[in-house]
Amino acid sequence: MKIVSNSSPLIFFSAIGLLDLLADFGDISIPKAVYEEVTKNNLKGSNEVKHADWIKVMEVEDHESVAFSSALDAGGAQAIALAIKQNADLILLDDLAGRRAATAYGIEVIGTLGLLKVMYQKGRIENMKNVMDKLQKHGFWMSTELYNKMLKD
Fold first, then answer.
1. What is the average pLDDT across 66-86?
2. SS3 content of the chain, % helix, strand, coil (to 5)
């Protein structure tokens, strides 16, 4: 499975110690802008992403992402452009504007919480509540309603 990721799933999965679980999904590519966004400013997960040899960093030309650049940051715009260019099966995105743009181009989208749900269903996560609590401690915002829905599902 070909997968492209934006920065937030990488950052949050690294922060909660589950980045390596993403390798189970398939070949993961990220545009250079996402790599720089995660690693340049010593964000949570920067060392993990730097050393994850299963994440492929790809070049995306400016003209390829220009259609998305007005509504998204450079990483999001390049991630969508890369997903289109690679005919990716899936893009990992949390940003609502990015999700809408990717969906408009026919790209299947899943975010951090969706990935957690899939991993839980596959038995790769034992205690969803602990993982959700860790996510929130690391700055992942979700409504109380969504938190409860995730635990209920």
1. 82
2. 60, 10, 30
